[in-house]
Specification:
Helix content: 25-40%
Number of domains: 2
Bound molecules: nicotinamide-adenine-dinucleotide, zinc ion
Structural class: alpha/beta
Largest sheet: 7 strands, mixed
CATH architecture of the largest domain: Alpha-Beta Complex
Number of strands: 17
Distance between the termini: 14 Å
Oligomer: single chain
Length: 380
């Protein structure tokens, strides 16, 4: 089959690789209909992870079940399904309490709880930017979708970014009527803004410098804040009468940069501690790494990020972090899509064939104007 393969920094290729096979009775094989490029893939693409060459990328997958192992009984051949980016066993302590993103059994990597498809340190699993994908523990992991092709571009956001945005809002301790500042207007930040609006925020701000992304934020009913125009903390304080926001969502990650493009991994954490009111909450879904050899400072290379913890403490703020447990939310979010209450597909900017993945990576990585979210359709 054809697949997108990591070959080194800024180098992905579309190659012929072996078809996946059923390896365990609880496996399923999915024929991929849509698979997205994610901001998380860019950390690998830019050479800022330890991902090995030859890895098939892609953790945002959906499709139709092609084959099932003999131990699979909830999922059948022909079912249309969404595949959460987390690979979960469904039976360990973390999985049974709803934390499938920290499954204790799926990832053999020392010191890492939680597994995913086609991702650095997340286990030996190939990704789904390919024609077919092997899904372990298929009964646990797969979400049924209505038959046919309707809502394809909405449902494809269920594998990661829509639940992740929702999780960022959840981790912030959100309550109805809150004012929320989302840092990062990429796909995850936009989904956090959409989620906060659906959940009854009184006002949502989205902070970024990319004007096309800020324009999309407005489409979801959010107020755009351009951090290249002026200090975003001052802008948010002015916009809230000096009070600050109730909740903050971090949807940028460790490659946060200033208006000149220079990286400062502490920048957004500092901004959030400053702009969230006392006793307010912060949800961090942007990724931070235990080690970052590509960082500019020696501390950051060791995963140490000096930030305004004193401000955070003094204001009595709280913070939640980590990979999103997609399965906790994806059924409910699917139903909001079907009911017409959620439109995550609105952020789709490009739909490409698998063979165009290389240009998709280049443009999305450059944050070229208009390249907000790239969907690949391996079937053409
Ligand atoms: N926790 C999870 O489960 C999970 C899941 C998916 C993605 N992620 C992570 O979420 C983050 C965002 O993902 P994405 O797909 O939206 O990526 P993206 O790279 O497309 O978007 C990041 C955005 O942040 C903006 N940005 C950079 N510095 C900023 C600053 N100082 N202030 C405000 N905005 C700034 C960039 O301009 C960009 O638009 C990444 O770190 C990704 O790895 C986490
Ligand atoms: Zn993703
Ligand atoms: Zn588990």
């Amino acid at each position: 089959m054809r697949a997108v393969v990591y070959r080194g920094p800024k180098n992905v290729t579309v190659e012929e690789v072996p078809d996946p096979t059923i390896q365990s009775p609880t496996d399923a094989i999915i024929r991929i209909t849509t698979t997205n490029i994610c901001g998380s893939d860019l950390h690998m693409y830019e050479g800022r992870t330890s991902v090995e060459e030859g890895k098939v990328l892609g953790h945002e997958n959906m499709g139709v079940v092609e084959a099932v192992g003999e131990g699979v009984d909830r999922i059948a051949v022909g079912d249309r399904v969404s595949v959460p980016f987390n690979i979960a066993c469904g039976t360990c302590r973390n999985c049974t309490t709803g934390w499938t993103s920290f499954c204790l059994r799926a990832n053999p990597t020392e010191g890492m709880d939680g597994a995913a498809y086609g991702y650095a340190n997340m286990g030996p699993y190939d990704g789904g930017q390919a024609e077919y994908l092997r899904v372990p523990w298929a009964d646990v992991n797969l979400l049924h979708l209505p038959e046919g092709t309707e809502h394809e571009n909405d449902f494809t956001m269920l594998s990661d970014i829509f639940p992740t945005g929702w999780h960022g809002v959840e981790l912030s301790g959100f309550q109805v009527g809150d004012r929320v500042a989302v840092f990062g207007g990429g796909p995850v930040g936009l989904m956090a803004a959409h989620s906060a609006m659906i959940r009854g925020a009184s006002q949502v701000f989205v902070v970024d410098k990319e004007t096309d992304r800020l324009a999309l934020a407005e489409k979801f009913g959010a107020t755009p804040i351009d951090f290249s125009a002026a200090d975003p903390v001052e802008q948010l304080m002015d916009a809230t009468g000096g009070r600050g926001v109730d909740r903050g969502v971090e949807a940028v990650g460790y490659q946060a940069h200033d208006a000149t493009g220079e990286e400062h991994p502490e920048l957004v954490l500092d901004n959030l501690a400053q702009v969230v009111r006392s006793t307010g909450g912060i949800g961090v879904v942007g990724v931070y790494m235990p080690q970052d050899p590509g960082a500019t400072s020696d501390l950051a290379k060791e995963g140490r990020i000096p930030w305004q913890f004193g401000t955070f403490f003094t204001k009595g703020q709280s913070m939640g972090t980590g990979q999103a447990p997609v399965k906790r939310y994806n059924r409910q979010l699917r139903d909001l899509i079907v009911a017409g209450r959620a439109n995550p597909g609105l952020i789709t900017s490009h739909e490409l064939g698998l063979d165009q993945a290389v240009e998709g990576y280049q443009h999305f990585d450059d944050r070229d104007s208009g390249w907000t979210k790239v969907l690949l359709h391996p079937g053409g």
